[in-house]
Amino acid sequence: MRLCWNDGLGGPLGEMDPEEAKAIYKIGFRVAGVNAGYQEPSAADIDHAKHVLEDAGLIPGPYGIGASAIRPDKAEEREHKRQIIQALKIAGKLECTALRYSVGSLHPKDIWMCHPENHTQKALDMLIENTKELVPVAEDSGVMLCPETTLWTIVNSIQRMKEFVDRLDSPYVKIVVDPVNHMTYDRVYESGRFVRCAVATLGDRIGEFHVKDVMVQEKHLVSHIDETQMGNGLLDHEALIRVSTQLEPWKTFSLEHIGDRNLLKPAYDHIQGIADRIGHKWTNPQCTRKKWEQGACE
User: Fold this and answer.
1) For the chain, which has fewer Cβ within 10 Å, the N-terminal or C-terminal residue?
2) Which helix (H) or strand (E) holds 83?
3) Sign (positive or negative) of CA dihedral 215, 28, 174, 249
4) Closest residue by Cα to residue 63 from 108, 106, 101, 103
């Protein structure tokens, strides 16, 4: 897999900052996600973003949007689908690998929050039907639909990830595996085993790894697990790096949720330090899906 910074270069594409892109390159990243918001960019905006990335030496990774293919309010659902379709087309023009978005929740106000019906088969069936209409756009754009999931969303387990991908039956529908989003009391101290089992079950149904770190807050009488600064927590990053070699090499090993730019270099150094220690080599960042399928990757 290709090492990627997933939080990406944010804001309107026409205002993408060349200096920020160069700073990401200087840290060590060669692949970066793009977060452009919801405003539809012009052709000139897209050209600007492409030139900024190219001039900085960065390859576009995933494209990100805060939308979902399923909402309880049907007018809101139609708007979210419109945003996803627009984002797929923009991502295709930027030559991004995937569109990462929320797999969805039936919570009335939040696409990530828990809802009693999220865990039902009916919710999963509705989600899959709603996603079917997006698949041709993904295929035409050459961009994977690659939703993010948690324990609270409609797709909330490895088994439901597998069902989601298999029933949609397209090479352009995959799933994000984010071990921190699926961490439980019985996984947190053996996270390496969890990630190995997840990859063994899902294989190339996985479109991206999302990489963070996790901690247990000991002051609570009930289980309370949260994110923490990369390298300070319990996630077995070595195991995650090792199993990444089982997936297609053009996919992304994506570091994320590093809002403080001062913490980005330490996070990179932590992951790269593990890779160096075990002799792991990341895929050539130039190895895109198109090149891989053409047999053109080194």
Assistant:
1) C
2) helix 74-94
3) negative
4) 101
DSSP string over 149-167: --TTSSS-SHHHHHHHHHH
Q: How many CB atoms lie under 10 A from the CB of residue 205?
A: 18
Distance of CA 85 to the CA centre of its chain: 17
Is residue 143 left, alpha or beta, with left meaning phi > 0 and alpha meaning psi from -120 to 50? beta
DSSP assigned state of 25: H
Determine the residue type at 150. T
The distance in angstroms from the start CA to the end CA of the chain is 13
In the block, residue with structure tokens 């049907």: 74
Query: What pLDDT digit, counting tens, does each position of 66-76 carry?
Result: 999 999 999 99
Q: Determine the Cα–Cα distance for residues 13 and 17; give it in Å rounded to an integer.
A: 9
**Residue 26 in 3-state DSSP?**
helix
The answer to whether 178 touches 212, Cβ cutoff 8 Å, is yes
Q: Range with the lowest mean pLDDT among 4-8, 95-99, 152-156, 246-250?
A: 4-8
Structure tokens at 289: 């899906």
- Residue ranges with strand state E in 36-141: 59-68, 98-102
In tens, the pLDDT along 168-202 reads 999 999 999 999 999 999 999 999 999 999 999 99
Which is nearest to 24 in space by CA: 293, 261, 284, 221? 261
